[in-house]
Amino acid sequence: MASLLLRQQRVSALGVSRILQAVNGDSFRLQPESNCRTFASFGVIIRNYSSGKGTAKFDFTDLTRPHTWYPNARKKQRKVFLHVGPTNSGKTYHALKRLESSSSGVYCGPLRLLAWEVAERLNKARVPCDLITGQEKDEVDGAKHKAVTVEMADVTSDYECAVIDEIQMLGCKTRGFSFTRALLGIAADELHLCGDAAAVPLIQELLKVTGDDVQVRSYERLLPLVPLEVPLGSFSNIRTGDCIVSFSRKGIYKLKKKIETGGKHLCSVVYGSLPPETRTRQATMFNDASSEFDVLVASDAIGMGLNLNISRIIFSTMKKFDGLERRDLTVPEVKQIAGRAGRYGSKYPMGEVTCLDAEDLPLLHSSLKSASPTLQEDFLENAKLSENYFFANCEEMLKVAAVIDELPLSLQDKYLFCISPVDMNDEISSQGLTQFAENYAKKGLVRLKEIFSPGSLQVPKTHSALKELESIHKVLELYVWLSFRLDESFPDHELASSQKAICSMLIEEFLERLGFQNPTSRKLNSLMAKKRRQYI
């Protein structure tokens, strides 16, 4: 099912972000920049709004027609193309070619890395393209195209062509609302949706009421993915081009050490809490045939967002902890990760996949043979909601709300802090948000130097120091995000951006030094030091 976002007024109060279409045609937007601060709580609450021409009544709990919240899109007879298939099937390639040839357009992706890759691709093709994410805005003169993270999708502008990547994420409990909003709200003559075939029935059902013309284009993998019948067994069987997957940060570094102890390979690493810039550089080193970093150790962060020349995927385990329990990987998770092996046009066009241990092979093989389940989800029953939708999980927002609820901030400002990219499970990150919010409430001005000393960052020497540096990067990233939205109150945008870049470089240096070094590796360290000095 598709997801709808609920806003938080208090810890116990819930409301819904929507466009209120009055009987007389006037619209009222409930958005952070709006002056309208009325939120609905559960129960049937009807509020009156005066438009100057009359009074219209709205039942905030009636969420059965969300497609009507986007009048710009409903004015168009959109042609919707569903490009569905496995990883490395060319589905996104065909959608992006159409975007490239359009007179105006927007790409919406789930990750900053994907938006960055598309912006770079279009600009190289001499199609001026802006890059807009929650943390950065890079505008190009004359651009009529945009590459954005899906949360930044503009539903008020008209486009000839729009692409939404990884559309199956509309079933995500935490971010699905952004994909649902983009699907229903982007006003484009052509809307190209790329993702897993499991999303097709739901999307077709959602778009029955929009009047859009929906076509499904199915793709097969360009070259086969071969499930091996034997496990890796010994780490001595690791070879160039391998990627071994672990689902914990500790496990990743343990595997890196075991592989490098053999003396034959050096490992790049990729996992979710690494800064995006660091992930990109680690992937670049792995892809570079002249680099000594010829093996990749990664988490499921490789599932999307990075172009990787992987010969063989090796699952170190077929279980992961999802925040609640340690469970078997799902069919979509296995397929998403395994599909990264082999890349059309690369050194390894045909991919292989296996497990570290023989006992995990049956689950791997059965998952690859199984169809991904169609999207569906349970939803709250307190409000009137179409059966095709469910409420987004707002637990992270509630954690922020609990911290800032008593601060003398406007509801608009409280909401802004609630939707910020803070990791409340990270102690340093949550402390950073608390200090930012408190300083903002007291003085209306937050200087970075009040909580952070520029020039104090150093290359970490231990794993605990590395984790702390990753947390500092999150705090700096949060400041940058807030500076885009409250620029007068958070004026140190450039300083925060430069220190964030240094953080990434220092983390990168640690990763280089962690391996068993040789002269070439030390040259890489020297190069990293030169790059770091550029930001000082």
What fold name goes in the CATH topology slot of the largest domain?
Rossmann fold
* Distance linking N and C termini: 48 Å
Number of helical segments with 4 or more residues = 15
Share of β-strand residues: 15-25%
- Percent of residues in helices comes to 25-40%
Structural class: alpha/beta
Q: How many structurally independent domains?
A: 4
Would you identify the CATH H-level superfamily of the largest domain? P-loop containing nucleotide triphosphate hydrolases
The CATH architecture designation of the largest domain is: 3-Layer(aba) Sandwich
What coarse outline follows from CA principal-axis ratios?
globular
Strand tally: 26
Overall residue-averaged pLDDT value:
82
> Biggest sheet, strands in spatial order?
12-11-13-10-14-15-9-16
Family: Belongs to the DExH box helicase family.
GO cellular component, one term: mitochondrial degradosome
Main location: mitochondrion
EC number: 3.6.4.13
What does this structure look like?
The chain is α/β, with parallel strands linked by helices. The protein folds into four domains: 1-63, no CATH class; 69-218, Rossmann fold (3-Layer(aba) Sandwich); 225-372, Rossmann fold; 394-508 and 532-536, no CATH class. Helix content is 34%, strand content 20%. It contains 15 helices and 26 strands. The strands form eight sheets. Strands 12-11-13-10-14-15-9-16 form an eight-stranded mixed beta sheet, with helices on both faces. Strand 2 (6-8) and strand 3 form a beta hairpin. The radius of gyration is 24 Å and the shape is globular. 42% of the residues are buried. Residues 4-56, 378-383, 516-524 and 530-536 have low confidence and may be disordered.
